[in-house]
Amino acid sequence: MTRMALALLLLSTGTLAMAQDVSLHGYVSQGLTQSVDSNFITDHNDISLELTEIGINGRVDINQSVSVVGQAVYLDGGNRFDKGARVDYLFIDWSLPEFAGWKTQLHIGRYKNRHWLYSATRDVPQTRATAVLPQSVYFDRFRDIALGSDGIQAQFKRFTDEGIWEIDWSYGRSDISDTQTKSLLGDIAQGRAKQDFVHQLSVYWQPADMSWRIGLSALDSDFRYEPAATDFLLEGTTDVDRLMLSIQYFSENWEFSSEILREYQTDTGVLAPDFYNRRIGEGGFAQFRYLWDDNFSMLLSFDAFYLYRNDKSGERLEAASGGTVPRYFGYMRTKSVGFRWDIAPRWRFQAEHHWVDGGARTIGFISPFTTIGTEPEWRMWSAQLMYWF
Amino acid sequence: MHRETYPLTILGNCRGHRTANWLYGLTLALMLSIVAPMTASASVVVIVNDDVSEGSLSKTDIRQIFTGHRQFWRDGSRIRVFVLDNNAPAHKTFCRETLKMFPYQLERLWNQITYSGQGEPPVRLDSQQALINAVLETPGAIGYAEEGMFSNAKSLEVNSQ
Q1: Which residues of chain A neighbour B124 with C-beta distances below 8 Å?
Q2: pTM of the full predicted structure?
Q3: Would you list the domain boundaries of chain A?
Q4: Which CATH number does the domain housing residue B139 bear?
Q5: Taking the domain A3-388, which CATH number applies?
Q6: Where is the signal peptide (chain A) (predicted)?
């Protein structure tokens, strides 16, 4: 738990006595899962119960314009992210007086990322179309860093007869755990990766008939590596910029969503004193969901990510690494099918299967040498039962 | 500013109400108001508890309230939203005609709000009568019901902004 989150937790405890209103919600989800020919989720191709999500979130209204909100979760996602409990978000939610038709919300503390289509709900099993979201955008190894940050977020919304404008701006940072550091840089990392800041802006528009929604988002984030006294790795930095276009279309019996991104990354140091690498990656997903009726729906999805937009086959990556990084780690293309059954109010069964070609999102963010066992073609599946309140 | 008016209704009776007790009927007449059918042909109208002091609501107000973007009445009291299950015909009609969205969109929006700690989701009820009763009995409540459920209507005015 970050220091800021802890401070806010104490603050929220202290403010309970002043609260006008307290609300609590949560979810419990347990699944079966397996990754075959990749250790992306499970080791040794085993079927596993490592798909557990338990969360509880609360909101304490201090008055009409100020609240304290937070969520604690326990997660077990196999190799996808750290197993254990954490505070996903904990912030003061402050509604400012409406100005020129714009509603403004300030989130101060560990805020939740609201900039991408599913970033605000990626932690909540019953809101996700699939247990494993499209990795081009929702890279699981970055889950805790991308879900929220310690800092400030402002949301501006304007409702008009023509439609809804939404602008989100945020500035913050996240702590990176030892496990995440090793996940990003490899087991040889003895020091700590740190995020200096993440700065994001997004703009969304939805017309009055609510049938579609389009948005643009931008991200700028700097990381650095501080080596331990005895370390194979060196001091270094990584600068990431991301631009993304998001779109959704809603029909009575089907919906379509897509996000395409371009990612600019500059790495210096870490692997060698004069190491410098600049890459432009790109990718995105298209997802189609058909609703048979109120209780059954089916999903088809295609997701693709390329580490280097000018090296889609990965040949240059393999050559540059002297053959130590196979070419298929330069790309990752995933075809998915999913099925959802709403068994009863607040109960859902969801299953999915992914066929994957390549491993670009199974390697470390900074160092491609952190490859985990992945074959050129692999697959994964999961089946989840979930309850929420 | 262009103003569009809609017939609004104060209810004096609820047809089909199980309680024959005249006192309950009188209470219902005093407590329940229909405030904003969104189109002249709308078959589902918005209802509020009688302690709600706002005499009119705009289309934008209603959309904001039912999508969780407005959670307090102008007098500072909390808005309590009641809806029917996703598969109820009145809910589908209300979502489509009034909110201009499909039930699954509304549910997703509320999930996003609820599980981001941004608000309390609507209370879901399994019958129109239960919804009407809940709106009657809950201060600050808002919901909807089919027009044919009521009689003794009185028209008011609401603007479209």
Answers
A1: 345
A2: 0.85
A3: 3-388
A4: 3.40.190.10
A5: 2.40.160.10
A6: 1-19
Give domain status of residue B4, yes or no. no
Q: Which residues of A touch B117 (CB under 8 A)?
A: 57-59, 67, 69-71, 89, 93
Domain count, chain B: 1
H or E segment to which residue A38 belongs: strand A21-38
Over its C-alpha atoms, chain B yields an Rg (Å, rounded) of 15
Residue A316, H or E segment: helix A315-320
B69 lies within 8 A of chain A by CB: yes
Nearest CA in chain A to B77: A64
| B64 contact A CB<8A | yes
Contacts of B57 in chain A (CB under 8 A): none
Distance, CA of A287 to CA of A304 (rounded, Å): 12
Both tokens of residue B47?
A: 């209802």
CB-CB neighbors (< 8 A) of B113 in chain A? none
- B63 vs A: CB within 8 A: yes
DSSP character at residue B98 = I
B108, B111, B120: residue with CB nearest A23: B120
Q: How many whole angstroms from its chain centre is CA B109?
A: 18
Residue type, A343: I
Contact check, Cβ <8 Å, B115/A252: no
Residues 6+ apart with CB under 8 A from A382: A31, A32, A33, A34, A41, A51, A131, A132, A351, A352
ipTM: 0.84
Residue-level pLDDT, tens digit, chain A, 389 residues: 455 555 555 555 555 555 568 899 999 999 999 999 998 888 888 899 999 999 999 999 998 899 999 999 999 998 888 889 999 999 999 999 999 999 999 999 999 999 999 998 898 999 999 999 999 999 988 888 888 999 999 999 999 889 999 999 999 999 998 888 887 787 788 899 999 999 999 999 999 999 999 999 999 999 999 999 988 899 999 999 999 999 999 999 999 999 999 999 999 998 889 999 999 999 999 999 999 998 999 999 999 999 999 999 999 989 988 888 899 999 999 999 999 999 998 999 999 999 999 999 887 655 555 555 789 999 999 999 999 99
